[in-house]
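Its record is retained below.
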Amino acid sequence: MQILVIGLNPAVDVEWRVGSIHWDEKNVVLSERRWAGGKSVNVARWLRHLGARLKLLVPLGGATGTELRRQLRAEGVPLRAVPLHEATRANVMVTQEHGPQLRFNPLGPKLSADEWRAFFHAAGLEMRRSSLVILSGALCRNARATVYRDLVRLAHRLGVRVVVDCDGPAFAAGVTAKPFLVKPNEFELAQWAGRKLGSDAAVLRAARDLSRQTGGWVLLSRDARGGLLVNEAACFACCAMVPRVRARNTVGAGDALLAAAAAEILKGTEPTEWLRNGLATATAGVQCVAGELASRSAITAMRTRVEPGPDDGR
């Protein structure tokens, strides 16, 4: 069976490299790189790279949609695209030789009523062929905040486990449908909890609260501090640290974590392996330039250095 990755707002990612940014002046772009992007696409690319069987379902339109389809075909990512009248977005990153990076993400296209119906029809067909569904990334411009919740409910009716990775109102609505696993980062967890999480204990309490609401797993990414996996119903809480590395790029690190964890779930491995392999893949990934995926050997090397710690002693 396959993993079905569903995204509503994929993108072509564009990186412009400049010497430095001069405000209110002409900035010379020294080089440009373009690759298939957006959270759902990142997850699908990583799954393909890790050898998992998958299908990516996204809406695509316009010249950027054609470009994205071509890029995914070249990488061998299995794709089902729902055609759109409006164009797929392009995200732009401006990277300086030294200093912070600027990122510009358009809102993306609107879907017509007919396009929404076609998308949900395609989702139902692909869910029937899948054993795990991943709902990933930002919503398109005119999507209801409840659209991921509705897709979780559709998957439940078809007997398929669901993973949700998004933020804001879409996340808050999605978790009410009780997905199998959710993957927030600390900011998204605090956003859901409605309070600052100023300590490790506060983070753990919020993750437990979220697990109680969903009845399932919470996989929390914590950047350089590693990650946390919690399931209150199973009385399970496990953390892991990651080795200190030189991060060249952090875009998509959470997507790498999620893809590797999902691949382990599909294999039926122990939950500690979901966390361990997810963090190893994400840590190897941040050492690559944006858009590139870490080699299998680099991931294996990181895996040997990620050791899940004990639970909190309950």
Remarks:
- The CA atoms of residues 180 and 216 lie 5 Å apart.
- The mean pLDDT is 95.
- The domain at 2-303 is CATH 3.40.1190.20 (UDP-N-acetylmuramoyl-L-alanine:D-glutamate ligase).
- DSSP finds ten helices and 13 strands in the chain.
